[in-house]
Amino acid sequence: MAKGKDVRITVILECISCVRNGVNKVSTGISRYITQRNRHNTPNRLELRKFCPYCYKHTIHGEIKK
């Protein structure tokens, strides 16, 4: 069994607004979530609206490279 071409892969989602604007002066850090996606159903990069505790609102979290 080859493990290199699994259908479901683990991806990391990172807050786009924290990365672009730099993080708030009060709290340091970047919001990241770990999830899985199906390689056949979603071939392009995944973007989801998730809650960012550093921005204190729902923002778009985009897939990053590992």
Automatic annotation (TrEMBL):
<keyword id="KW-0150">Chloroplast</keyword>
<dbReference type="InterPro" id="IPR038584">
    <property type="entry name" value="Ribosomal_bL33_sf"/>
</dbReference>
<keyword id="KW-0687">Ribonucleoprotein</keyword>
<comment type="similarity">
    <text>Belongs to the bacterial ribosomal protein bL33 family.</text>
</comment>
<dbReference type="GO" id="GO:0003735">
    <property type="term" value="F:structural constituent of ribosome"/>
</dbReference>
<dbReference type="GO" id="GO:1990904">
    <property type="term" value="C:ribonucleoprotein complex"/>
</dbReference>
<dbReference type="InterPro" id="IPR011332">
    <property type="entry name" value="Ribosomal_zn-bd"/>
</dbReference>
<dbReference type="Pfam" id="PF00471">
    <property type="entry name" value="Ribosomal_L33"/>
</dbReference>
<dbReference type="GO" id="GO:0005840">
    <property type="term" value="C:ribosome"/>
</dbReference>
<dbReference type="GO" id="GO:0006412">
    <property type="term" value="P:translation"/>
</dbReference>
<dbReference type="GO" id="GO:0009507">
    <property type="term" value="C:chloroplast"/>
</dbReference>
<protein>
    <recommendedName>
        <fullName>Large ribosomal subunit protein bL33c</fullName>
    </recommendedName>
</protein>
<keyword id="KW-0934">Plastid</keyword>
<dbReference type="InterPro" id="IPR001705">
    <property type="entry name" value="Ribosomal_bL33"/>
</dbReference>
<dbReference type="InterPro" id="IPR018264">
    <property type="entry name" value="Ribosomal_bL33_CS"/>
</dbReference>
<keyword id="KW-0689">Ribosomal protein</keyword>
